[in-house]
Amino acid sequence: MNQVYNDPIGHWIVVTVAILLLFFVVLTATAYTVWFERVALGRIQRRPGPNRVGPFGLMQLAADGVKLAFKESFIPAETDKVLFVIAPTIAVAAAFLAWAVIPIGLWGNVQYWIADLNIGVLLIFAFSSLNVYAIVIGGYASNNKYSMLGGMRSAAQLISYEMALGLSLVPTFMIVGSLRLRDIAEYSVHWGWYSGPIPLILLTPLGFVIYLMAAVAETNRAPFDLPEAEQELIGGFLTEYSGLKFVMYYLAEYVNMITVSALAALLFFGGWNLWIIPPLLAFFIKIVLFLFLYIWLRGTFPRLRYDMLMRLGWKVLLPLAIANVIVTGVILVATQG
Amino acid sequence: MADSEDQQRTPAPQPTAASGDGGAPEHPTPLRRPGERVPPKPEGARPGVIGDVAALAGGLKTTLTEFFRPVVTTMYPEDKTPRSERYRGRHYLRRYDNGLERCIGCELCAAACPVGCILVIAAENTDENRVSPGERYAKTYEINMLRCIFCGYCEEACPVQAIVLGPEYELSDTSREKFIYTKEKLLEPLPPDVEARLAAKPTPPPHPTLPGERGGNSQT
């Protein structure tokens, strides 16, 4: 395997196959995430959720996808047609690009990722920031005041929460000393009798809490889903989108959701290390638990008001994250000299 | 959160006649009208951040409890909720046991119908062509089910218990024409349980027949 990987042509073959495989896996995972969300939300409200198409409604997303694909590709009048089409493309491209550096696990000695970058986390944040462009451009190009408002809200929200999101992870990087996701996931300690991998949440619990909240805001999920607030903005930046362009935004949202769940598992819960459970399964379990947490939050909390959102981001999360960095730094210096 | 800022953001009290000397509202909080009181926290709620986090956890606990409780949905096309005995669904025209139609073409149902969805055209019974006891029968009997409001007045107006509303409520169809129910459709036999229940009810005696005629429940 390594020989093929190191050969220049073989490398590209492997990477191409990996990319195609990743598309397939992530798209399938997205479809079943939507199914999982609808069923879990339904159960929270004591109804069964989709259960008509296929066994347990598992083919619901296939049916929805076919329906949306056959819809008319409609572009409203007086819109900026080029930007209107480009915006959802940016969203979906940015969402998938983040998966280039996410390690899925180790099985035998075969590694499952496309690029093992030493700045992996940084790259993921770079791509997730692109999502702002998708939403702002989509809102601007729609020529609709609700879309515009949704886009503006989103810009403010994503920029505010990106600061807290980034800073919440700095203590992790300081402890591990690497931005490579594999190093962070396999972080091990040698404390007296214990020597082995340890979930980083034990070392930076506050960082995890801040990450969790900021990640929900970063993916525009309830209770921070102001950019597409249905009740106030008729769907915000999504208002004018339908058919496959709507699918792209929808897909991007759920891919982002899986991405931040995977990132949470990698950065705070030791990635694919879980007792004796096989690595891929362990990683899968952790992602599913995080996805459930997301859905649980959506089923519980009402949407925040805009000023509350800004206050939470700038006056609570950001100072806490900065304090977390300083305190972690002081402790690191004190314990390691 | 920050009290000083909250006071700063509170809108000025409206200059109304009643609050001339009132001054500042008692509980200045953002986005509340002046004078509107802050709802008190529930009994036993802890103040401050700990109380707030506890409230959030309480909400999460509620939804998680609901998550594990059984689903209450009725799976409609497979399971149906029971209907009342007196449920008013689609119409039926009944027959006597000897096969004669009950309807005597009196048009009282059409007169009673508040939306005018019933059309009855009567014709004379003859010895060669006897359709119902009595002088006349309904040559045409049509109900426009798109207009019908299922009030049951036709059933009440009918002197011979000819028209009744049955239990069926799944009446959707693919064209408007199919909603004009003609005699052919209305004369379909009632579900046996409904027929048995109607038979047990005290009904007026059959319409008297003219001399020499067979009619009503008289034997053939």
Give the key terms.
heterodimer, A: 337 residues, mainly alpha, two-stranded antiparallel sheet, two-stranded antiparallel ribbon, 4% strand, globular, B: 220 residues, alpha+beta, Alpha-Beta Plaits, 2 domains, 3-stranded antiparallel β-sheet, 6 helices, 23% helix, disordered N terminus, disordered C terminus
Q: How would you explain this protein's 3D organization?
A:
The complex is a heterodimer of chains A (337) and B (220). With 337 residues, chain A is mainly α. Chain A has one domain (71-336). In chain A, 67% of the residues lie in helices and 4% in strands. Chain A has twelve helices and four strands; from the N terminus they run ααααββαααββααααα. Chain A has helices at 2-6, 8-44, 60-69, 81-97, 120-141, 145-176, 181-185, 205-218, 230-233, 243-268, 279-300, 306-336, and strands at 106-107, 110-111, 188-191, 194-197. In chain A, the strands form two sheets. Chain A has a two-stranded antiparallel sheet with strand order 1-2. In chain A, strands 3-4 form a two-stranded antiparallel ribbon. In chain A, a hairpin with a 2-residue loop joins strand 3 and strand 4 (194-197). In chain A, helix 2 (8-44) runs parallel beside helix 11 and helix 4 (81-97) packs parallel to helix 10 (243-268). The longest helix of chain A has 37 residues, at 8-44. The mean pLDDT of chain A is 82. With 220 residues, chain B is of the alpha+beta class. Chain B folds into two domains: 3-67, no CATH class; 91-200, 2-Layer Sandwich (Alpha-Beta Plaits). Chain B contains six helices and five strands; from the N terminus they run ααβαββαββαα. Chain B has helices at residues 3-9, 48-67, 108-112, 153-157, 183-186, 192-200; strands at 91-93, 118-124, 136-144, 163-165, 180-181. In chain B, the strands form two sheets. In chain B, strands 2-3-5 form a three-stranded antiparallel β-sheet. Chain B has a two-stranded antiparallel ribbon with strand order 1-4. The longest helix of chain B has 20 residues, at 48-67. Chain B is elongated. Residues 1-10, 12-22 and 215-220 of chain B have low confidence and may be disordered. The A-B interface holds A 40, 42-48, 296-297, 299-301, 305, 307, 311, 315 and B 1-2, 30-31, 56, 59-60, 62-64, 66-67, 69-73, 75.
